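Note to self: keep these together.
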Amino acid sequence: MINEIFDHTAEKMDKSIEALKRDFASLRTGKVTTSIVDNITVDYYGTATPLTQVGSVIATDATTISITPWEKSLLGDIEKAIQEANIGVNPNNDGDFIKLFFPPMTSDQRVEIVKQAKGMVEHAKVSIRNVRKDGNDQIKKLEKDKEISEDESKKAQEQIQKITDEHIAKVDETFAAKEADILKV
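Structure:
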């Protein structure tokens, strides 16, 4: 019973870390990645469809993303969706495909993106602490219902704290790597 709580707690904390990594993917680093446009949706015959599903999205070099729609009639809709997404660049439509030219990042932009990343890290840590609270509440309920002793409850809560500390350390490692990537010129 207690081991199930440990497993469930660790699994939920792992999901918080995965969510953080997905959030980090949307941040711009020195080199442009196609994940910058992952959250952009295009009106495709009345349905909001992810940009990556209506055309080919590739990073042609360190500062350029090229988008080639499957249907030429979507060029205008894709261009409009990119402008509304406000990703920091204006799309260049040449009639066949759209190019996004990202200027090299300034040091101020890099510092600002690191601040965004820190906000994401805090959100992940709060999520992990909430999972810890849920796990501890389950342990306390077992103790209250006399299914486990007070000593077992204390040991279980210590184990949950140990799991929490491990996951917080993983979050910090992930942030350190991303920060280095962002600040690298």
